[in-house]
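Workshop exercise sheet. Pairs work together: one partner reads the sequence aloud, the other fills in the structure field after running the prediction. Swap roles for the next sheet.
Pair: D.N. / O.F.
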Amino acid sequence: MYFEILKKAKAYESETVRFLMDMVRIPAFSTKEKDVIDCIKREMESAGFDEVFVDPLGNVIGRIGTGPKVIAFDAHIDTVYPGDLSLWDFDPFDAHVKDAKVWGRGTVDQEGGMASMLTAARIIKDLNLQEGFTLYFTGTVMEEDCDGLCWQYIINEDKIRPDMVVITEPTNMNIYRGHRGRMEMQVHVKGLSCHGSAPERGDNAIYKISRIALEIEKLHERLHKDDFLGKGSVAVTEVYFTGPSQCAVPDSARIHLDRRLTLGETKESAVAEVREACKLAGEPDARVEVLTYEEAAFTGLVYPTEKYYPTWLTPEDSPWIQAAARAYENTLSRIAKIDKWTFSTNGVAISGMHKIPCIGLGPGNEVYAHAPNEATPIEHLNEAAAFYAALIYQLKS
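Structure field:
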């Protein structure tokens, strides 16, 4: 059966490539995904899904089967902007095939995963592998802006709670089982404005926030390290200030912090560390704020969430990881490398918040995510599609 699955994936190659290029040609930035969601919905319907719908947040969800074992495959379908176009050798949305790769914004991060998922669904239906399963295939929105928000909605509001979720973010065709969490904070200080010709009359907020920033730099060096997920990190990524004019001492300032959380670190511990850094900088009254995301989806819905995205890790001896490794070896005739992402995924909500097991495998190499001249190998697209279908077959045993 594994050979038959791989054979079918290769037979569907032209359809997989065509669908990926269809998506890439439709810009799909966070909160602006409507047209690509409509494209995916049409593709699911043409593939003969048992049910296809777009939920109020804008996620497109396709279902195959009605069995008791519930498995989901997830691909976020929003992309980042192209950035400086001079760094691209072609129009980022001019999807094309060259050197056995599909090129264009989103081919790696992560519409390639969606294309392979849809092909896997076709294979599953062709071979009638869905018996005993309810299989969901989700094209999720707003991940680039707020990872996991889409799945908070799916679990809390759509009332879909799978037994396990396969995240199809790029893994260079390895099996991934977790990554560090993250959170976004700001530190605020108040000053006192005065004329710049006599700065001693005021209290310069930029000086105050600068001393805190230097303590944050020191904090980074002493953060906890996990043997598998790596070290926690914190970085000052933006600086803001207010003041009456360029000839006046600033009266307020704030810095934005990107905090990556390794295993054992929490929101509470991270906030406490920043507060201690403020004290060490001589600013115990500085205010530390965990930010909230409350942008409107393309549907108009606002679904606020705190910008805290918990660390998650599926144990290597988990039956889900072991089944994935067996399906991989049986289908692709090689041993899977078990590893982790460096970046964040929807797993922060699925596993980090809701404790639903996740595994990851996706076409493309994550080093090309968010980079110019993005491309994913066609061989990866075929192999990922075969793996997803083979995993369902493996889980039947």
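Discussion prompt: The mean pLDDT is 98. What would you look at next?
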